[in-house]
Each structure stands twice: as structure tokens, then as C-alpha cells.
Amino acid sequence: MHSPEPPSPERAAELRRRFADEARSERPDLSVLCLLIGAQADGTLDDAGLDAAQLELDRLAGEVPFRPGGPRSWAAALRDLLGERYGYRGSAADYQRLESSLLHSVLLRRRGLPILLSVVWLEVARRAGAPVYGVALPGHFVVGFGPQEEQVLADPFDGGRVLSGADADVLVVGATGAPLEPSMLVPAAPLEVVLRVLNNIRAWAAARPERSDVALWAVELALLVPSHPARLRYERGQLLVQRGAFVTGAEEMEEYAQLVEVVDEGLADRVRTEALAARALMN
């Protein structure tokens, strides 16, 4: 099973510029950002393909019943359309495929990770006028409908099954060993969703050292998101060294050490030592 091959360096640079502009806009568009991630992974996805994916989301939204009712009715309507009629869902095998984290591929295959299936639910439901948002449960992303006091959760990975409070608790306990907390049910902002998508891609690549190219572009896109974790700088440095860019990687690690020195001098020293070792590889 071969994962998608990346675009040309020129196309990749253009996509990064567009991603940065969208991520820093006043109202970042989740579907645009996820599709740009897909184009960074898959060199066959051109601008016509990006437009086609948006049109498919529009088409699906046009099939949602008009204002079906309260939160539970919205959740049921999306389940009936996406989960039952069109067969969008996930399985354990989807965790082994990079395509499961790429929105355009999920729209074609109707298979994906929980968070990408949730993006499909979110974008279709939003276009149809639903009160919908993502809910980043630990280890399992779902969608929520309605205000907090009337919240209804659905699990797109399970075909859009509407969850009871007990169901959500089982998901969280299974992922963390700890019970569900109310703070876990707050809506996730679009950029939080995007960072989690990129985290999943980095995790996929980390298990496949031969795909450090995927890990690198995923880190570089995450660094373009405002308020990204500072540790991404260190991770980028490590990946550059792994890929033979010893000096550039060492410089990135040294900049990270300077950032963290104020709060953790010991960590800064360890990172500088690692940077020195990377520079020594040039000899």
C-alpha cells in the first residue's frame, strides 16, 4: 500500500503560503485548511481538485433536510444522510493509511479517521445551517449539535451514531482511563482541529521513518498556525538532522533552546548539546 507522493517544491511552497494566509485570517476556513493539507500530501490534487472537493461538500449539504428540528433531529438527519445513505464511517484499518487524514481522499473513499470524518460532518452540517461544532474528546474526535445545555453528540467514525452521556464516557475512559469531564465537551476552534489533524499525520509518519518527508511538511504547516506549541521548532530541527540538513537542523534546535531557557535551563542545555552533535556530523 503506497501513500500519496508530494507535489513539486514550487507547488508545495505556494500551498504553504496559502495555508499561512488562511490560518492567520480573521475567520479561518476549516475545509480550506484541511484541503490544503491534502494538497501538500498528494501532488495529484490540483486547484480543480480542491474546487471539486468543496463542490462535493456543497452538494451533500443540499441533501440535508431543511431545518429538521432541534439538536437531536439535526444529528439524526446527518447520520441518515452521511452515515447510512452514503456510508461514511471508519474502521481500525483506516489508522494505517495517510489518506485517512486527507479530506479530499476521505470524500472519495468515504472512509477516514474520526477527526476527518468529523470535518465532513461539520462542513456539510454548517453549510446546511446546523448548530454544529467539533468536540475534541481525548483520543476520539466527535461532533456536537446545539447549545451546551442541550448538547447532542454524534460519532462519525461509527456512521454518525448519536451518543448518550454514557457512550461518551466509555470513549474517554477507553482512551485515557479517566472519566469524562465537562471541560472536554467544549467546542473546538477550527485551528485546534487543524493542529490535531497535523498531529495525526506526524504520528503516522513517526511510525514510518522512511516517510520523514511527511513528518517534516506536517511540522512546517503546524508552525504556520498561530499559537502553535514551541516544541515544534525542536521537532523540526530533529527532522532536518535526520534528513541530512545538519546545520539548518542544529540552528533550529538552538533557537528552540533560546526560547525555553527562561523556563527550563536544563532542557535548553540538553538541546544545545544535541545541536552540537548535529553540527559535528558535518565533519
From TrEMBL:
<comment type="similarity">
    <text>Belongs to the UPF0162 family.</text>
</comment>
<feature type="domain" description="Protein SirB1 N-terminal">
    <location>
        <begin position="54"/>
        <end position="199"/>
    </location>
</feature>
<feature type="compositionally biased region" description="Basic and acidic residues">
    <location>
        <begin position="11"/>
        <end position="22"/>
    </location>
</feature>
<dbReference type="InterPro" id="IPR032698">
    <property type="entry name" value="SirB1_N"/>
</dbReference>
<feature type="region of interest" description="Disordered">
    <location>
        <begin position="1"/>
        <end position="22"/>
    </location>
</feature>
<protein>
    <submittedName>
        <fullName>Tetratricopeptide repeat protein</fullName>
    </submittedName>
</protein>
<dbReference type="Pfam" id="PF13371">
    <property type="entry name" value="TPR_9"/>
</dbReference>
<dbReference type="Pfam" id="PF13369">
    <property type="entry name" value="Transglut_core2"/>
</dbReference>
